[in-house]
Every structure is written in C-alpha cells, then in structure tokens.
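User: Ester cyclase. Structure?
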Amino acid sequence: MKDYFDNAPAKGPEGDLRGFDPEFTDIVDYILRITYRIWEGKQVGLCHDYYSEDCPVYTLGGYVEGAEAVMQNTLKTLSGYPDRTLHADNIIWGGDDETGYHSSHLICSNMTNLGPNEFGPATGKRVQIQVIAHCVCKGNKIVEEWLVRDNYSLAEQLGYEPLEVASELAQKPLDPSGKFAKWLVSEHKRVSASGRERVAYPSVAEDRAAFIETALHNIWNARMLGDCNLVYAENARLHASARDDLEGVTNISRFYMEILGAMPDAKISADYSCVNSMNDSDPHAAVRWVIAGHHTGNGRWGEATGTPLVILGESHYRFEDGKVVEEWLVFDELAVLTQVQRARLAQAASQE
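Assistant: Predicted structure:
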C-alpha cells in the first residue's frame, strides 16, 4: 500500500525497467501514471520523486532547473487552472534504461481559467491547447525535459490579443548573463552552423526516423520545398500551433514558406527522433527540432526587425503507405513574437 493517495490508472502487470520502480509496466506506463499523479491527482509533491534535483527544463519562454522549480511552476499553473486535465493523444519513445528513455508526450490539455493566469486575472474561460513534453528518463526520474506549449492559442482563447501580451512580456528584463539568454544564444549558434547541401533519402520502410530527419533537412536547410510532395500524402493534414488545421500538401508547403518568408536564412536541427508509439495501429515518428535564423522578412510577425530568432518545437507524424498523412506540430509562437517585440523595444530605445 502506498503512503499517499493514488488514483492513477494502472496499465497492467509489473515491468522490468532497470532502475525504475517495478510497478511500471514500461516507459509509456511510467509517463502516463506520474503525469496523472502530479496533475489530475494533485500530488504535486511527487515532482521530487520523479524529477532529478538538477533536471533542466527548456522552454522558449524561459528556463528552470530542478524538481523544486518544476513543483513550484506546477502549483502556479494549477492555481490558475485547478481542473486541468492532460490527455495523452500519443507517446512516442526511444532509448533504453542504460542511456535513458526519451518520451515525446503529445498532450491535449483541457482546463478552465478560475484563478490568476500568466497573462492577467481569471477569465472563467474554458480552453484547450496542445502540448508536447519531451523527457529523458533514467533511474525512475526525469533528468532532462524540453516543453513546447501553444501559448499563442492559449492567450487568444482567454480573450487576450497575442501581440499585446508579447509586448508586455518583452518588457520584462532578460539577463544576458542568465542561463536562459545564454541557452538562446548557444542554440542559435549551433543550429546556424547546419549545412545546406541536399541529403539522399533513406527508405521510409526501413528507417522512418532517418527519413523524416532527412525530409526536415532538405525542406528547411536545402530549401527543397517541393519535397513536401515526397513526404506528405496529397490529402495530408497538419495540426500546427496557433493555426487552423491545414488540409493538403499545397497548404502544408505554404506553412513552411510562411516561416521561411519571415526568416529567409533559417536553418533547422533535428535533435532527436523516435518511432515506438503507444498507438500502434499506424506507423508513427516524433522529432524534436530547433529552428534558428534572423527576422529579416515581413509577414506573420510584422515588419522585419533583423533580430536573431530561435524556435523550439516538436512534431508527431502518422504514416500510411510510406507517406505522412497527419502531423501534429507544436511550438510556442507567443514566445517567438516576444523575441520580435523585445527587438522592437530595443530598437526604439536606441533611437531616443
């Protein structure tokens, strides 16, 4: 018997994950149950059981480190959305118990804003957003995490104008010597060093992960946008952050062009991919990626500022007959807009 209340549903028999509590059947069961215990079960103190004390958590809106910081952020979120639920649309995973398991957890989060939120006072509005939490798990703990959340849609659903929210967020000081600012600079430098030469496609049947990594490189870095027709089925659907669903390969390629139009020198780095899915009816793949470039084009984020931009994101893909028929792409576009607005404020200050 546990020494705390636990209403998390169990998946099945005990597993043999080395270094993990025997109650967990596999890594999917581990992620599902600890997420439920902390959020729906409100056992927030379990963050100290399931996060390492030095666990870095990377988001495009900020950086935190350690179980205590994760616990405090969880409490802040729950105070604003006490009924928050996190439905696992999919968990795609890779790795092992020796090097660490990677889990890409696609979440549909439903919640009601009943308390102060990160943008202002309670609105009473019911919202739904997509999140992907990419965790590295070893020894029964999460030791590293990358978190992407559709905060642009969240702001809109709460009744805020995203540009106004980004302008307010941009006014908060960003310490250039702090870990978050240094991480943004280092990521921009790392990704910008990626090459642009085309790469031959591996067989999608033999290696879906390598195939999708190659596709991202060729489309983004080599500028072979026509390769969307090789990668996506003609009637494919893209669920992208802050946008209505895009239907068909033509509209999906326009999404790529929209981002590249604002960042013509952008490059992408596919940093981790995996293919083992909790939904085994169709082949899947997940990729964690970073895009870096400069805001030198007018478009979705307004008049060009020339500022360096970093976009942290993650995608889930579903395949049929060797092509992507559905993609879930999540990134924090509100944080991207905040980077742009921070540059505008700096430029305005320099002209005074």
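The two ends are 66 Å apart (CA to CA). Residues 266 and 293 are 4 Å apart (CA to CA).
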